[in-house]
Amino acid sequence: MAVAAGPAPDAEELTLLERWLGLPKGNKYGVQGERKVPVLQTNNGPGLTGLMTIAAHLVKQAKKDQLLGSTAEEKAVVQQWLEYRVTRVDGGSSKEDARVILKDLNMHLEDKVYLAGNVFTLADILMYYGLHHIMVDLTVQEKEKYLNVSRWFNHIQHYPGVRQHLSNVVFIKNRLYTNVH
């Protein structure tokens, strides 16, 4: 199983996560296969493979386990959204895929501050990174159509240290289109 070196979107996200967690630099990331699955080269033993696996490892390494959820239910919800991120967000490539993802998230976030309810978790961070390229390209009207996603995304991008070098996505405070829904 050959591992190709070079920056892949997920590998870049892992570097951002590592920085946000306050971990020392030095992890070596590569990618493997056609889907460019991230791989973390470890000093002792085999490398770790996959965005969720490596991200959870980094969180535990930083001793910030609360980002994985505190209760059994929270942990399951965080895992569910990390899985959604990898299977649906990373797996989707068309405008229609993006629309379905935004619609799903918009419904889920209707009565929640964060993906796992009222607590900020790893799911919020990785979903933010995964959706950034989609949100950047939305029109004002599309952002208003997915109002709950826009509220959540704007909140996460202003969470201390999360955005880093990624471009700020601008949201208009006053609604321009009132018949969007």
Structural features, described:
By secondary structure, this protein is α+β, with helices and mostly antiparallel strands. The chain has 7 helices and 4 strands. The chain has a 4-stranded antiparallel beta sheet with strand order 1-2-3-4, covered by helices on one side. Helix 4 packs across helix 7. The longest helix has 18 residues. The termini are far apart.
The total beta strand count reads 4
Widest beta sheet: strand line-up? 1-2-3-4
> What distance lies between the first and last C-alpha atoms, to the nearest angstrom?
48 Å
Radius of gyration: 17 Å
Mean pLDDT: 87
Largest sheet: 4 strands, antiparallel
**Regarding quaternary structure, how should these chains be classified?**
single chain
- Estimate what percentage of residues fall within beta strands: 5-15%
Task: Describe this protein with a few key phrases.
single chain; 7 helices; four-stranded antiparallel sheet; alpha+beta; globular; 181 residues; disordered N terminus
Characterize this entry briefly:
The chain contains 7 helices and 4 strands.
